[in-house]
Amino acid sequence: MIDRAGLAGFLRRRRESLQPEDVGLPRGQRRRTAGLRREEVATLCHISTDYYSRLERERGPHPSEQMIASIAQGLHLSLDERDHLFRLAGHNPPARGTTSEHISPGLLRTFDRLTDTPAEIVTELGETLRQTPLGVALTGDTTRYTGPSRSIGYRWFTDEATRSLYHPDDHPLHTRVFTAGLRKMVTLRGPGSRAAHLLDLLLDRSEEFRTAWNDHEIGVHYNGVKRFVHPEVGALELTCQTLLDPDQSHMLLVYTAVPGSESHEKLQLLAVIGPRTRELSGRPDPS
């Protein structure tokens, strides 16, 4: 059963304890509100201001699990705080561990400060959870996929548009990296895991994957540099740095270019151009 008073009080306290800079928002001038404004929280949580305001006033409909998950992420809650919020709303908390998509506050704070570089937060299966605006400008919105297509490793073998993002000379290495990475995750997570499900799908749908899988490679990695091909600015050579959250198995990937290089100039141009107008061709996969 929902605890409306407890839910309202908890939401107000968390909102008032956060400052705009804590969640990647500009402070602005003449700010009088203690903490965040309700409309700012609503934007962070991808809900209407009216809906959020009613929750703080102990009113409105019973929020769904999906809505509570969105609020927990928008308020940068820890896992303990997230679980408490779910219980106040009358729901059982989601599972913790490798299947959780709740991003830790520390990783989010780091991500929120990366306003001038391509960056993304991904799961261990390569599913994009968050992208910076410049990340969207570089690769398109990769958070929009559903089903198996959320995994870039799956898309690599099933969607030609995904391959068009990368330099053709590097395609064989990408094939080996994605295959070896999935082999590692299947072994680590075991039968019945999401990794095992992706394996079954790819064995059925991609001859290229079956050939690479039969090579039994493990531990294949990039050399720290990825070469992208953008439809408007052309080729870019970017260094990829990775920050791992071991508790959630999430990775923050940050792409940078050598200052003064041609790729650095192209990133600056991308920042002006903004998000890609031409979306990738992949469609949601019903599997």
UniProtKB/TrEMBL annotation:
PROSITE patterns for the chain: HTH_CROC1
Cited CDD domains: HTH_XRE
Coiled coil stretches, renumbered: none
Residue span, HTH cro/C1-type domain: 29-82
Any matching Pfam family: HTH_31
InterPro entries cross-referenced by the UniProt entry: Cro/C1-type_HTH, Lambda_DNA-bd_dom_sf, MLTR_LBD
Protein name: Transcriptional regulator with XRE-family HTH domain
Lineage: Bacteria, Bacillati, Actinomycetota, Actinomycetes, Pseudonocardiales
